[in-house]
Amino acid sequence: MEKTLENKKIAMVISFRDFRDEEYFIPKDILAQAGVEISTVSTEKGIAIGTDGGEVKVDILLDDLRVSDFDAVVFIGGQGVIRCLDNNKSYEIISQTLENGKILAAICISPIILANAGVLDGKKATVWSNPMDKSAVKILEEQGAIYQDELVVIDGKIITGNGPEAAEKFAQALTEILK
What CATH number did the domain enclosing 121 receive? Predict the structure, then answer.
């Protein structure tokens, strides 16, 4: 694969425990192959562990993340993400990302964090849900988002993906918008 994005940098934000492995590793591999420099961000230093046991070294603490150093900030989903990252620090980073004209992306359940940060009002977005649990869709709609039942939705500089099966398409959307 051609390294077309060698000067681009992405911060991938994960929960320290129980991030969704495919949503982190598949996009990371695709973006790295395109030449993107990736930093892994979380609330603790050390080795973060995914739901399926995947391990990744945390490069930057969430509290130390400087949005201006990156072209995009990407929130990864998983069971631990709402517990770990649905907070004022994440909201601040999300706001800074858009204020600085950077790309903001979230996959699986993590678009809830974008919604709670107030940045999806009037924007098209998707989020993880299933026939038995539409609570995430409800949260997006309550925060003013225009929910789309799609794998990946792009609205301006905001990219949302709806879960593990969207990981590859999510990464491709990021690659395209970074160009």
Answer: 3.40.50.880
pLDDT tens, position by position, 87-120: 999 999 999 999 999 999 999 999 999 999 999 9
Residues 138, 13: Cα–Cα separation, whole Å: 24
The domain in which residue 141 lies consists of 9-178
Angstrom distances, CA of residue 148 to CA of 84, 87, 142, 162: 26, 25, 14, 10
The residue behind tokens 């997006």 is: 140
In a domain, 145, yes or no: yes
Classify burial at 81, counting beta carbons within 10 Å of its beta carbon; exposed 0-12, middle 13-18, buried 19 or more.
buried
| Domain annotation covers residue 3 | no
At 64, is the pLDDT very low, low, confident or very high (cuts 50, 70, 90)? very high
State the maximum Cα–Cα separation within the chain, in Å, rounded to a whole number: 43
Backbone angles phi, psi at 31, to 5 degrees: -70, -40
Specify if 2 maps to a domain: no
